[in-house]
Design goal:
CATH architecture: Alpha-Beta Barrel
Largest sheet: 8 strands, parallel
Shape: globular
Strand order of the largest sheet: 3-4-5-6-7-8-9-10
Helix content: 25-40%
Structural class: alpha/beta
Strand content: 15-25%
Bound molecules: NADP nicotinamide-adenine-dinucleotide phosphate
Length: 275
């Protein structure tokens, strides 16, 4: 049995702890890749306005034959739309493009602290949330100081902070802050886009437990309590990345993998993204 556990968010909404990422899947390939993931058993899809593939994600969800309410769909506000009026219009467009009636989760994709509007943007997301067209709202790539500014200036505590996390960037300070505030952490690039798969420690632990390096890296994230959504357009890998719930890593394995941290990002530091 390979049942994916749910994480309960701070507003009571449940999110499957394992999902399917769609960054850099070209629109022409997205419907098929998403349908493959849904067929294998994934029930959580992560997309974004920036990825340019919301229409195809929505098409796959509609074509899957599954009940809309059984699939958790996330999208994210693109960087040019931090003005509250733009955020409202962009959310409306996401709903049209996805064609799914409502979204399960909507995130501010990057804080763009240099532009300095994210608290106002967050208030627009609060209004959207109150309108009932999204079940939860959150942020992505926010540092603790950004989260503090949101929580000081608004009412709704973000349900999620989606940040880059993998064995070379374990992000324990941001994760601990999220936990203290009741915010769930989502780990993007959970296999560091493939970089951690040849790490000798991960390869050795994979051999010890009879699993693949990708499964070990993903299982490490899950046992630390994070939500993950690896991306692959390769069916065998999409299947491999789903096989995470019939084995466990020991506490010693988890500690050894965490010790691989070298604060190495595959993407930009949040303070570098301003537009
Ligand atoms: N909020 C943000 O700013 C942000 C930023 C980046 C990503 N994300 C989200 O997080 C998701 C995951 O991150 P990511 O796509 O950047 O990186 P990732 O999931 O860490 O890595 C994806 C890469 O690894 C390969 N891969 C996947 N499974 C594999 C396996 N079992 N064995 C070997 N190689 C494997 C894929 O290749 P193939 O596809 O060729 O098989 C692809 O090149 C994204 O898709 C997106 O939804 C969010």
């Amino acid at each position: 049995m390979n049942a994916v556990p749910d994480i309960t968010l701070n507003n009571g909404v449940k999110i499957p702890q394992l999902g399917f990422g769609t960054f850099q899947i070209p629109p022409a390939d997205t419907r098929e890749a998403t349908l493959t993931a849904l067929e294998i058993g994934y029930r959580h899809i992560d997309t974004a306005q920036m990825y340019g593939n919301e229409k195809e994600v929505g098409q796959a969800v509609r074509d899957s034959g599954l009940d809309r309410d059984d699939i958790f769909v996330t999208s994210k506000l693109n960087n040019p739309f931090h003005d509250p009026a733009d955020a409202h219009a962009a959310f409306d467009q996401s709903l049209v493009d996805l064609g799914l009636g409502h979204l399960d989760l909507f995130l501010i994709h990057w804080p763009q602290a240099g532009i300095g509007k994210f608290v106002e943007t967050w208030k627009a997301l609060e209004e959207i949330y109150r309108s009932g067209r999204v079940r939860a709202i959150g942020v992505s790539n926010f540092q603790p100081n950004h989260l503090r500014r949101i929580m000081d200036g608004s009412v709704v505590v973000p349900a999620i902070n989606q940040i880059e996390v993998h064995p070379y960037l374990i992000q324990d300070e941001v994760r601990a802050f999220d936990t203290e505030q009741g915010i769930a952490t989502e780990a993007w690039a959970p296999i560091a886009k493939g970089k951690v798969l040849t790490d000798p420690v991960i390869v050795r632990i994979a051999n010890d437990v009879g699993r693949t390096p990708a499964q070990v890296a993903l299982r490490w994230a899950l046992q630390r309590g994070d939500i993950v959504f690896p991306k692959s357009v390769t069916r065998a890998r999409v299947e491999e990345n789903f096989g995470l719930f019939d084995f466990e890593l020991s506490d010693a394995d988890i500690a050894e993998i965490s010790a691989l941290n070298r604060d190495e990002r595959t993407g930009p530091h949040p303070d570098q993204v301003n537009g």
